[in-house]
Amino acid sequence: MFVQLLLDKTKLMPGRVMVLLVVSGSILGFLGIYEPFANWAGAGATVPLSGFGNTLWKGISKAMAEDGILGMFKGGFTASAVGISGALIFGYLGSIIFKPKMKN
Asked: How many CB atoms lie within 10 A of CB 2?
């Protein structure tokens, strides 16, 4: 609902709203607010883009604890690799199965 209000009532483009969701998920994860919210909301909080931001934050914080400052650069990739790979693979399979065409 919040995202739809942003799109309807502001001049923000959808790409900027998506970035805002990822960043807000990371910030809420940093503040320790996102985990209790995700436990309460379930998949409604963990699947959207804000959940992706929280996953990035968890990966970065874990990698920084293990590897120091270098973990800041590799933790997000490690934590989100499965989700990104799945999106790429299933997107590719969908394009093979359904043969997408350009709109006229």
From this structure: 10
Q: Is residue 76 in some structural domain?
A: yes
The residue segments making up the domain with residue 82 are 2-98
Residue 79 CB: number of other CB atoms within 10 A?
20
Q: Tell me how many domains the chain contains.
A: 1
29's tokens:
């994860």
Q: Which one, of 31, 75, 85, lies nearest residue 55 by Cα? A: 75
Could you read off the pLDDT of 6-21 as tens digits, one per residue? 889 998 888 899 999 8
Domain membership of residue 27 (yes or no) is yes
Residues 6+ away with beta carbon under 8 Å from 98:
none
Angle at 49 between CA 70 and CA 63, to 5 degrees: 20
Please report whether residue 103 resides in a domain: no
pLDDT, tens digit, 9 for 90 and up, residues 12-67: 888 899 999 899 999 999 999 988 888 888 877 777 888 888 889 999 999 999 99
